[in-house]
Amino acid sequence: MKKIRDYINNADIRKFRFWLQLFFFVIFVFGAYFSIDLGHEIPVLSCGYDRENGGMCYFLPLQHQLARPLDLLFSVASITVLIGFLTFVLWFIVFNKAWCGYACPLGTMQDWLTSLRKIFGIRFSTYNQTQFDKLKKIKYFMLALVILAPILVGMGVLGGEWRTAFCEICPGRMITPLFVGDTSQWTIDFSSKSAMVLTALGMIITGLFIVGSFFKKRFFCFFCPMSAMHYIFSDAALIRLKKDGDKCTKCGDCYNVCDMQIKDIADDVESTNILRDDCTLCMKCVAACPEDDALHVDILNMKVFTSTKDGFAKRMQVNKWEAKDD
Amino acid sequence: MTKEINKHHIETPKEKQNRHKAMEAAAVLEKIKHEFKEPAKAMDYFYDLYDKVHCKHEALHDDKVKVGTMCIQVPAEIVHALDATPIRLCNGFYTDDEIGSDLLPQKSCPLVKATIGHFVSDNFSDKPDVVISPTTCDQKAKSGAIIEERGYKLFDMEFPRTKESEESREYWRRSVRKFTAQLSNDLNKKLTRKKLKESITKIGYAQHLYHQLNSLRKNENAPILGVDMFLVTNAFFFDNINNWISAIKPLIKEMEQRVKDEYNAAHKRSPRIVYTGSPPIFPNLKIPLTIEESDAIIVADETCSSNRMFNDMVSVDEWFVNDMVDAVADRYLKGCTCPIFTKNSDRIRRIVELVRDYKADGVVYQAFAGCQVYEMEQRSVLEAMEKEGIPILYVESDYSPNQGGQLTTRVEAFIESLKNRRKKRI
Predict the structure, then answer these.
(1) Please, what CATH class does the domain formed by A239-315 belong to?
(2) Cβ atoms of B83 and B109 closer than 8 Å
(3) Is the interface score ipTM higher than 0.85?
(4) What are the domain boundaries of chain A?
(5) A3 confidence band (pLDDT: 50, 70, 90)
(6) Residue A268 CB neighbours (<10 A)
(7) Measured between beta carbons, which residues in chain A are less than 8 angstroms from residue B204?
(8) Number of residue pairs across A and B with CB atoms under 8 Å?
(9) What pTM, to 2 d.p., does this model score?
(10) In terms of CB atoms within 10 Å, which of A160, A192, B57, B274 comes out highest?
């Protein structure tokens, strides 16, 4: 048992993550080729406009469902909406925000862009703390757009083209179908003024997505409404990111490697549940923590991956060194 | 007749100082070697090293550019990566303390006085080519000017006094970048990705070994004395890092064997002490020696001459020069528990954690008379320990050799009380 535990704690999390991300990418983007269909309630941005998807982002069906006329939305007929929602929550509860760090195809694409940048030898950019505090709020406005826009359509306040307003501006809609050779989303819809504005905005955001995530790690995740939605339920999840503040020296190693620049991970020594709304549960912080058991990932209060001095030394390659003649 | 007069050599002031320093050093080494149980064989390297450097005044780094550092905040990773060798100048000699007294206010910290004294006497076995002075505590920050007046090349490295804010982090990162650029320019060496990665790995490895050795002290039978451990860590100030690494490896092996054999460097019932406060720097091991001579054993410490120097490690996400330099910078600010910072709950948490982790019976808090920040922080630490139910002794000391009696009585009484507490618990 101790051997297994040591093996996991000493593991090179990057390799593990790379392969798992690739696996989920294939399932979500090309799943239909293998007749995989995980349903329409998947808590990641696995785009429904990709006709070959193996599991659809919950936002597309959700927006369609919420756009029903109000009286229908609040009737027994909408029990399916409720079931869909519960399915979403169930999916989410199993993996918590690890969906973002390990399964989201859009997240994976950003990590690939990061790798591309590394090959070019260009350094990543960061926000400063003030920018960060402002920008991170955007995702809640996005979530409001996901929920309110279709309801307003259902009430007849907004036109039908607002039904899937978020999808129109989501970079996933344009980029994901490209992987199955579908370029039909790369158009501006001139049918109405608002459709034109939305699709044009979508194009701009897609451009920003590609450029942004090339320079800034996980650029889009700061703005992702799915991430905001996750956070509402994350307290009920089975997998958790925990911190033992007594063992923390606030050295900031975790903060230093965090793609999402979450400062609390290093500075908060009070909270035991250290998962924050921006977190993607990528576990890089746990891998970068040099203190025994200061950060750990738990499943049902059982430590499955915990920070150790030895694991740190191994991953940072400081456990071996040979003097060279110089 | 004239021949004989010529033969008679009159000791120069420098030689006299060296003789006095050698006497101080030899006295402490003798105590460590002979007043306790048989020392570990692997410790011989360190005893010899101190003998060579402090008694025989031999140079260790003739072949390299020497970068003198006034505090632990100067990033050793960067100095090594630029093919220079860092030498920490914090000094523990009473001889130098007395020389420095002439230039500083009466109530200054003996460590600062001794460091200045060393520069005034200009009596280095390894003379630094450039001195880096991080603006940590007031006394050290102001010493820079005095050292510069003496004709040394000095670089003030700006260091923030708060560490929580993002501003201070960015400020310090800039300061480290500036230092890197300056040093690289002065030495006419380019900081390459490969060199920096190598030096981060080397220092990380040294830290890793330190942690391996240190964690053996968690055992019920601590295999190594605190004074020996202070010698080992203290040697990191000035030793050739490759030699230090090769010397500590056999020591770890020997200590692992001792743990297996349930060998205790002190005695089964010796109280276990966590040592905190102003740094004990060779040969000023007065308090650690007093503690261990009174049948207690230091199992952990929270001082900048030992644990704090090794504890926090660099973690890098992307191995580019800029990212590495920033990551190195973070190591020296974020985790530092020096009392110069405005708030310092981190230090208290650290001491409590050490007491738990190393199963200590009590804490000895030592402050140099004149080391204002440690003196000021004493009250809050004492209060916190009281809350946790951890016995703590606060002692003030300096470098003078004739303070022994009163100190010994206090330390002995404290240790006696710890023994009684232990008995009651059993």
Answers:
(1) alpha beta
(2) no
(3) yes
(4) 22-231, 239-315
(5) confident
(6) 16
(7) 313, 316, 318
(8) 93
(9) 0.93
(10) B274
